[in-house]
Amino acid sequence: MSIVARRYAQALMNLAVRGKSLDAASAGLDEMADALAASEQLQAFFAEPKVALAAKEAVVGELLGKANVDPLVATFLRFLTRKRRIVLLEDIRQEFHVLADERMGRATADVTVAAALTDQQEQALRGRLQELSGKDVRLRVQVEPDILGGVVARIGSTVWDNSLRNRLTQIHQSIARG
After folding, report:
1. Which of 11, 73, 79, 147 makes an SS bond possible with 69, Cβ 3.0 to 4.6 Å?
2. 130 and 160 Cβ atoms separated by less than 8 Å
3. Domain extents for the chain?
4. Tell me, which fold does domain 106-177 have in CATH?
């Protein structure tokens, strides 16, 4: 993520908290970022420096007319367009969610497993990660058979690697050291 995206996300966060519209701002930001991400043509249009600012503002106005977003988000998107930063919307959204999670005591755990988890296993893993992190944890699970078994979980910069692949590597290194 860029420092610029983080600053814009922080500015939106401050305004949303002050206006007591954090959830509405989050939902509106998601809706508009999803709309932009879903269209390669829109992404190319906004990234093209030769396109006139007035044309970009008109397209943002049309998008906002079709969406039902919080007025704060609408104003924010128009501001991003004027500053020629609308291309950073996805990065801003991600940074905004990180800031919102920090503020609300939540965290997202990126979890890698060898095979799909049952609901019961997912609940147990979520509970354990909540104990370790002290936060309300949402799981983002990815199945990757290469880890052979176990779990690799990452919350922020902290990684818990309890995979069979990692254990075998440690045993191999232990044997190699003698």
Report:
1. 73
2. no
3. 3-102, 106-177
4. Glutaredoxin (3.40.30)
CA 36, chain centre distance (Å): 15
Residues 6+ away with beta carbon under 8 Å from 153: 109, 110, 111, 112, 125, 129, 159, 160, 162
Inform me whether the pLDDT recorded for 165 exceeds 90.
Answer: no
pLDDT digits 0-9 by tens, 136-149: 999 999 999 988 88
| CATH architecture for the domain at 3-102 | Orthogonal Bundle (1.10)
Cα radius of gyration rounded to whole Å, the chain: 21
pLDDT digits (tens, 9 = 90+) for 18-46: 999 999 999 999 999 999 999 999 999 99
What is the per-residue DSSP string for 100-148?
Answer: HHHHHTEEEEEEEESSPPPHHHHHHHHHHHHHHHSSEEEEEEEE-GGG-
Contact present, 48 and 132 (Cβ < 8 Å): no
What is the reported pTM?
Answer: 0.71
